[in-house]
Design brief:
Length: 295
């Protein structure tokens, strides 16, 4: 049995795309050539790798298994290439990161901007995901790094703490709750809430906590940025729970009040998830070092 690395790369592109045509486009091949490479892999393995229908392609159980192995192999090939490219003094590579909402919107853009300016041969694919999908993505090799906040069940991964994440309640100035020193989640449910969009890590966390109280979140509107949430709050549309770092930044230019949440879940440890950091390409190790080093 003989595998071409190029065939495995094409298979990964197709597996991560909704159709063979889109996978072929990502691999810079024709659809016919891509199908031929997939067929060659299926023949060598004696197993079907893809289900094809009018909606596109999905992986068979054998395809799921091959995808995990192929990602590991490609990661090791990248390590070899980068290790020897270091002799030429140029750090190269591609890093895919799955991260929660706060990481994507608040601090990662600044960190990545500095990192990529220093390492122009490194490319980055940053995707916002829920915590459970971040863990699964790193475990399965779909991402090199995962950034999460809060407790996590990540057996088989290295969990590297790097900072703390605190959630606060944001109110318009003069709000009925503004005179309190701190507030419980239950106290806020008498007022309409402005939240981050459905599907975000923050929305998922807050709605779970509300459900544990046997209550329903009084949702007024959902938005896709902390700035938009704060502007709505400033206008008196409702109140909202967001990270303290975002609240402090917007409080400088808006008439807002913030209150600590008297809830254990409001203070969360931020962590980087990775498969065997020492076995990762140098560009990944350098990026992780930026997170864990004191700023």
């Amino acid at each position: 049995m003989h595998f071409e690395l190029s065939d495995l790369r094409v298979f990964i592109q197709v597996a991560e795309s909704p159709s063979v045509t889109q996978g072929a486009r990502r691999a810079n091949l024709s659809t016919a050539a891509t199908s031929a490479r997939i067929k060659s892999l299926e023949t060598q393995l004696g197993a079907r790798l893809l289900y094809r229908d009018s909606r596109g392609v999905t992986l068979t159980p054998a395809g799921e298994r091959l995808l995990k192995h192929a990602r590991v192999l490609m990661r090791q090939v990248a390590c070899i290439k980068e290790e020897f490219s270091d002799y030429g003094g140029d750090l190269v590579g591609h890093i895919r990161i799955f991260a929660n909402t706060t990481a994507v919107t608040e601090f990662l853009p600044e960190v990545l901007a500095g990192f990529m300016a220093e390492h122009p041969a490194v490319t980055v694919d940053l995707q916002e995901r829920l915590s459970r999908d971040i863990v699964r993505g790193v475990l399965e090799g779909a991402a090199e790094l995962g950034l999460i906040a809060g407790p996590v069940d990540a057996q088989g991964l290295e969990v590297i703490p790097y900072s703390m994440d605190r959630l606060v309640l944001v109110l318009p100035q003069g709000h009925a709750l503004a005179q309190m020193a701190s507030v419980r989640l239950a106290d806020t449910l008498e007022f309409p809430h402005i939240t981050y969009h459905q599907g975000s890590t923050l929305f998922d966390l807050v709605t779970r906590q509300v459900q544990r109280l046997g209550r329903t979140l009084p949702l007024r509107i959902q938005l896709s940025s902390y700035e938009a949430i704060c502007r709505m709050i400033e206008s008196g549309v409702g109140i909202g729970i967001i990270p303290e770092s975002a609240a402090q930044r917007h409080q400088r230019t808006m008439r807002l009040t913030t209150l600590p949440l008297a809830e254990d879940w409001s203070i969360r440890e931020r962590s980087v998830l990775v498969h065997e950091l020492d076995a990762m390409p140098g560009c990944v190790r350098k990026l992780v070092q930026l997170f864990v080093s004191p700023q």
